[in-house]
Backbone:
C-alpha cells in the first residue's frame, strides 16, 4: 500500500510514501502520520491511499509511525479542503494546517542521553565545546532536552556539535511525538438555568423566519442574506432557525467575526436553549478544544459557536450555518492560507445541502450583488426590534474653524461634540468615542529635517505608545525607545503627528476629570480577560465614556449608551484600497448603531474634513441603498469587484536587487489573455515588511475562470524563476492591498 502525505505547515507539494505492512490496518486518509523528509522526521496527514504508487515512481521511503487513532479529517472536510486547495492555489499541507486545530497537532520532543557504551577517557581528544556537552550529559542519567542544552551551552552551532558527538558514538538521541491535547480537563457540570422565553417577533422577523424554516424543511442548499438595521433582531431570527434545525436532528454552526463576540453570543444562547455548546476559538485550552472537537464530531454537541477557524469543525449532520456580521474583513485570513471563511461557509453549506444565513446591518458589496443576481434570497429587517428609531447623525465639519475655535492645536474633540458629551454625562448616560487608530500618535517626525522615525524592518512609521514610553511597529511588533533627538539631524526637532486612542483618552480625561473613562483597543486588552472585563463594566454602567477602535463597533449591545462620536472619519477613507468607502460606511453605521438601542433615542456625531463624501452622507441618512447605488456605480466604472474578479500575486525577498531583477524579467514574460487585465508587477504600497522587499501583480478578469487561468499561467512562469530565494504568494479575492 502507498500513501500521498501532505506535510503540515509545508508550502511544498505532497509526497508519496510506502505504508509498511504492520501499519497498513491503521493508516487511512485523514490520519496523522510521522514521515521521513531528508534527514529529519515531519508530521503529515494522509491525503489518499492506493495499492499502487500512482503519484510517484522510484524507491519510496516508508511511513515511520501513525500518530492518531482516528481520522482527523473526514470525507466531507477533505472535500472542502480539496476545494480550497484548487480555488486558492495553495499546497495541501498549508491548507491542512489552516484547518487542523493546533490542539490536534503533535510536537517533537527530543532527548539526548550519554551512550553507556562510550569510552569517556577518549573525550579529552575532542574540542572543549563538545567535552562540555558530553560532561553535562554524563551527569544526567535521564538525559537532557535540546532546549535545556541550548540554554546552558548556547544555541549557535549546537545541532552541529550534537551531530558530531552522535557520530563519534558518545551520545544517543531519542525522539518522541506528543499530542498537544493529552492534558485532561473535566467536563463542565450541567448547570441549572432558568430558560428565557422567546421574545415575540414583529412582522418582518416572522416573514424571515418563515422562509428559513421552509428552506430547512426542504433539506436542500439555500442561501439567505439577512439584511437588517442595527438592533433589528437578527440574532432572534438566527435562534429560530437553530431551534428548527435542532428539532430536525441536525447540527448548527454560528460564526462570529471576533473572539470578543463569542462570550456574548454564548450567554444569549444559553439563556434560551438547554442544548450544550461546542465552542471554538484560539484562547481556549488545548484539552477543552479537543473535547469540544470530539463532541462536535460525534454529534453530542449540536451547536458550534466560534470565530473563523470554527468553519473547520467536524460535524455528524450539519444543517445550518450562520455567518454573523458577514461584511467583516476579519473573516478573511491574511497570514498563511488567505481564505475567506464567509465564502467557504457558502461552499460547505452547499456540500452538506445545508441552509446558509449571512447576516449584517451593512452587507458587503459582494453579498448584495449575489442577492441582486438571485444567488441569495434577500431578507429585510428595516425596523429595530424595540421600536426605537435609529439615532440621528450629525456631521461636524472639521474644516470649519468655528468648530475648533479657541481650542489648542491638535485637539480631537470639537465644540459640538464636547457639549453633547457634557449633556449626556450630566444626565447619567454613557458616551462612546470611536477612533480607528491605536497608540498615542501614528508617527514621530522631525520638523527640522523632515524625516519620519521609521521601523528598521518595515517601510512604515513607528507609532508612539506614550503609556509604555515606546515606539512600536504595528506590522512586525518591533519596539524601541522614544529618542530625544532626531536620529537623522541629531537636533531637538521631533514632534508627534496624528491622533490615536491613547491621546484621545487623555483629552477626554482632561475635559471630563470626574467621569469614569476607559479605552478598548488591542493594547488595552493585551491581558487575558481584559476585554470581557471592560465590556462588562461598560454594559453595567461602571464606565461613563469608552474610547475604542473598531472593537467597539462589532455587534455589542449597551443599554445605557446614548451618544456615539466618530472622532475622525478619514482614518479609513484615506486607505489605498478600493473598499475604503465601503469600510467607512460600514464602520460609521455599525458604531452609530450602538447608540439608543433601548427606550431612549440615541445621538451620533461624525467629525470629518470631507463631510460631503457619499459614504458619510449615506451613513448620516441611514440609507444603505443610497450608498450601494453610488458604490456600485464607482466599482462598475473602474472594473472592481463584484463586477470583475481579482487576484494578487505577491513576490518577496530579503535582497532588493535580486527582487528587482526578478520583477524585470517577469514583466517581459506576462502573457496576454482575452478578458484579463494584468497590472504590474510593481512595488507593494508597503514595500518592505519584516525585512522582505515586496512587489505585487494584480489580475482583473470578467470571470473567476479567467482569473484562475491567468494565475496558473503566471505561477508556471514565476515559480521556476523564483526558486527558493523569492517567495511567491497567491491571494484570490484579495481584501487588503497594502
Residues:
Amino acid at each position: 500500500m502507498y500513501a500521498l502525505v501532505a506535510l503540515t505547515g509545508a508550502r511544498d507539494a505532497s509526497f508519496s510514501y510506502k505504508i509498511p505492512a504492520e501499519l497498513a490496518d491503521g493508516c487511512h486518509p485523514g490520519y496523522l502520520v510521522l514521515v521521513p523528509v531528508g534527514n529529519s522526521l515531519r508530521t503529515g496527514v494522509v491525503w489518499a491511499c492506493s495499492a499502487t504508487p500512482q503519484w510517484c515512481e522510484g524507491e519510496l521511503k516508508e511511513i515511520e509511525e501513525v500518530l492518531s487513532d482516528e481520522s482527523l479529517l473526514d470525507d466531507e472536510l477533505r472535500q472542502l479542503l480539496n476545494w480550497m486547495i484548487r480555488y486558492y492555489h495553495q499546497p495541501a499541507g498549508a491548507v491542512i494546517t489552516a484547518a487542523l486545530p493546533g490542539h490536534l497537532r503533535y510536537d517533537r520532543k527530543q532527548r539526548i542521553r550519554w551512550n553507556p557504551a562510550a569510552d569517556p577517557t577518549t573525550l579529552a581528544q575532542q574540542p572543549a565545546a563538545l567535552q562540555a556537552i558530553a560532561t553535562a550529559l554524563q551527569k544526567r542519567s535521564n538525559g537532557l532536552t535540546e532546549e535545556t542544552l541550548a540554554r546552558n551551552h548556547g544555541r549557535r552551532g549546537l545541532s552541529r556539535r550534537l551531530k558530531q558527538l552522535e557520530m563519534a558514538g558518545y551520545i544517543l538521541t531519542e525522539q518522541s511525538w506528543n499530542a498537544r491535547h493529552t492534558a485532561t480537563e473535566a467536563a463542565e457540570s450541567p448547570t441549572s438555568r432558568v430558560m428565557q422565553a422567546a421574545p415575540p417577533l414583529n412582522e418582518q422577523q416572522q416573514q424571515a423566519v418563515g422562509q428559513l424554516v421552509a428552506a430547512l424543511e426542504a433539506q436542500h442548499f439555500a442561501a439567505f442574506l439577512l439584511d437588517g438595521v442595527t438592533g433589528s433582531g437578527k440574532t432572534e431570527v438566527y435562534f429560530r432557525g437553530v431551534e428548527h434545525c435542532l428539532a430536525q436532528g441536525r447540527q448548527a454552526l454560528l460564526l462570529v467575526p471576533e473572539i470578543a463576540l463569542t462570550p456574548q453570543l454564548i450567554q444569549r444562547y444559553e439563556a434560551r436553549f438547554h442544548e450544550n455548546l461546542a465552542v471554538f476559538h484560539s484562547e481556549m485550552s488545548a484539552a477543552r478544544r479537543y473535547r469540544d472537537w470530539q463532541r462536535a464530531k460525534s454529534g453530542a454537541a449540536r451547536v458550534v459557536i466560534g470565530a473563523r477557524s470554527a468553519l473547520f469543525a467536524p460535524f455528524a449532520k450539519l444543517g445550518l450555518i450562520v455567518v454573523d456580521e458577514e461584511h467583516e474583513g476579519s473573516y478573511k485570513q491574511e497570514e498563511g492560507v488567505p481564505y475567506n471563511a464567509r465564502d467557504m461557509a457558502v461552499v460547505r453549506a452547499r456540500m452538506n445541502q445545508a441552509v446558509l444565513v449571512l447576516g449584517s446591518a451593512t452587507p458587503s458589496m459582494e453579498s448584495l450583488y449575489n442577492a441582486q443576481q438571485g444567488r441569495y434570497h434577500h431578507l429585510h429587517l428595516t425596523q429595530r426590534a424595540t421600536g426605537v428609531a435609529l439615532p440621528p447623525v450629525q456631521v461636524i465639519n472639521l474644516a470649519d474653524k468655528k468648530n475648533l475655535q479657541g481650542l489648542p492645536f491638535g485637539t480631537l474633540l470639537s465644540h459640538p461634540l464636547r457639549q453633547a458629551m457634557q449633556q449626556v454625562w450630566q444626565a447619567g448616560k454613557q458616551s462612546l468615542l470611536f477612533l480607528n487608530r491605536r497608540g498615542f500618535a501614528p508617527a514621530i517626525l522631525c520638523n527640522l529635517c523632515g524625516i519620519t522615525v521609521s521601523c528598521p524592518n518595515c517601510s512604515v512609521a513607528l507609532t508612539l505608545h506614550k503609556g509604555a514610553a515606546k515606539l512600536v511597529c504595528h506590522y512586525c511588533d518591533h519596539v524601541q525607545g522614544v529618542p530625544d533627538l532626531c536620529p537623522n539631524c541629531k537636533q531637538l526637532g521631533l514632534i508627534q503627528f496624528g491622533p490615536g486612542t491613547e491621546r484621545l483618552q487623555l483629552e477626554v480625561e482632561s475635559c471630563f476629570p470626574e467621569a469614569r473613562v476607559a479605552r478598548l483597543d488591542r493594547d488595552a486588552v493585551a491581558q487575558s480577560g481584559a476585554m470581557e472585563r471592560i465590556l462588562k463594566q461598560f454594559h453595567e454602567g461602571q464606565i461613563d465614556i469608552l474610547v475604542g477602535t473598531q472593537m467597539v463597533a462589532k455587534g455589542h449591545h449597551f443599554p445605557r449608551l446614548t451618544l456615539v462620536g466618530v472622532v475622525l472619519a478619514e482614518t479609513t477613507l484615506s486607505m489605498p484600497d478600493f473598499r475604503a468607502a465601503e469600510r467607512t460606511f460600514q464602520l460609521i453605521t455599525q458604531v452609530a448603531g450602538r447608540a439608543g438601542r433601548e427606550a431612549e433615542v440615541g445621538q451620533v456625531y461624525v467629525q470629518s474634513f470631507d463631510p460631503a463624501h457619499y459614504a458619510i452622507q449615506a451613513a448620516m441618512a441611514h440609507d444603505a441603498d443610497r450608498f450601494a447605488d453610488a458604490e456600485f456605480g464607482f466599482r462598475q466604472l473602474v472594473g472592481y469587484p463584484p463586477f470583475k474578479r481579482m487576484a494578487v500575486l505577491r513576490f518577496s525577498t530579503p535582497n532588493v536587487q535580486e527582487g528587482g531583477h526578478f520583477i524585470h524579467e517577469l514583466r517581459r514574460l506576462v502573457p496576454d489573455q482575452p478578458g484579463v487585465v494584468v497590472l504590474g508587477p510593481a512595488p507593494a504600497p508597503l514595500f518592505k515588511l519584516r525585512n522582505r522587499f515586496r512587489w505585487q501583480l494584480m489580475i482583473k478578469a470578467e470571470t473567476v475562470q479567467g482569473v484562475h487561468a491567468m494565475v496558473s499561467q503566471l505561477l508556471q512562469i514565476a515559480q521556476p524563476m523564483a526558486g527558493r530565494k523569492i517567495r511567491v504568494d497567491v491571494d484570490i479575492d484579495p481584501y487588503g492591498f497594502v
